[in-house]
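Translate sequence into structure tokens.
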Amino acid sequence: MTLLLFLPSGPRPYRWIALADGAVTGEGEGVPAIDVDVPVIAITPADAVTLHWAELPDRSTAQAIAAARLVVAEASATPLGELHVAVGDERAANRPIGVVAAGSMREWLASLAAAGVDPVAMIPAPMLLPRPDDGYIRARPAGEGVVRGPAMGFADEARLTELVTGGVEPTDLDRNALTAALIANAATPSLDLRQGMFARRRRMALDWALIRRLAMLAAAILLVTLTIDLVRIAQYRFGADAVAARADALGATGLRRGETVADVDRQLAERLSDIRGPGAGFTATAAAVYAVVRTVPGVELTGIDFSPNGSLRLSVTAARESLPTDFKRALEAAGFDVTASVFSAANGRVSGEMTVTRS
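Result follows.
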């Protein structure tokens, strides 16, 4: 079943025609009680919509509407911003263009919503009639007189119709032909005004079967991803164990011959400490201290003693009282902990001792 709901115009109220099984099953005035599953098509008054026909591109609706707006701009004195332009298709070279005030569309949709109706389409009343090959046809669906020509559609008014048709008398459609036209347009509207910003919002219905399939697919993808990660982790673990084994074998070559291998890292550290001395080792510590000595002119080392704990005791002489302090600060800036004794002056020079260790 499909319900054609004719919008009110002037003194005319809502009127409706019910279609089912290829026939008109009911007519009346007002807005009937409508089942939510019954599609409703709103029929706009003929005198509220201006119809044009023009050759338009059929590659996309957006391109067709853009071209139609150019056609309308040349034929209308009303600013395009206040008009709603819709494009239809009658399987002919020229395509129908519906032009209506955007404010009228808003008012119609608001009144329909207040009546609990969200129409699936909005068709101008003249577009309910079939397109004649030539001449004009006339009918009165739901009591509203409309006239159609090959490239024309308008409200049927005695004097206006005669002027528009040039005196050619329209042919009246019989009831069977009108019913067939109504059924055809209800199935496939040749011009639907619900386009662009007035297009019907589709309600999303949850397909639980699809949701379950997607959930199972997501779980399978997650399982496969987890399996791949576990295999990759195992590969990394085996590879790391192999690298560690090779490192232990290589490190063992640096130990004393015949020494039992227990902890290669610790044993190598002990061996290195034995070779270079405790702490940072004598060579590294002495080299760093001499590098600092070169940066403080007037300071000389008269003795060096490397202790078993890794500290280096320095005997220092300087040309001035301030130089030992400068030398101590330079050593600390180089990363040493410095302990200085009391410096004494003799024979024009200052001397004393400093003990340095790596921080």
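Note: Residues 272 and 278 are 9 Å apart (CA to CA).
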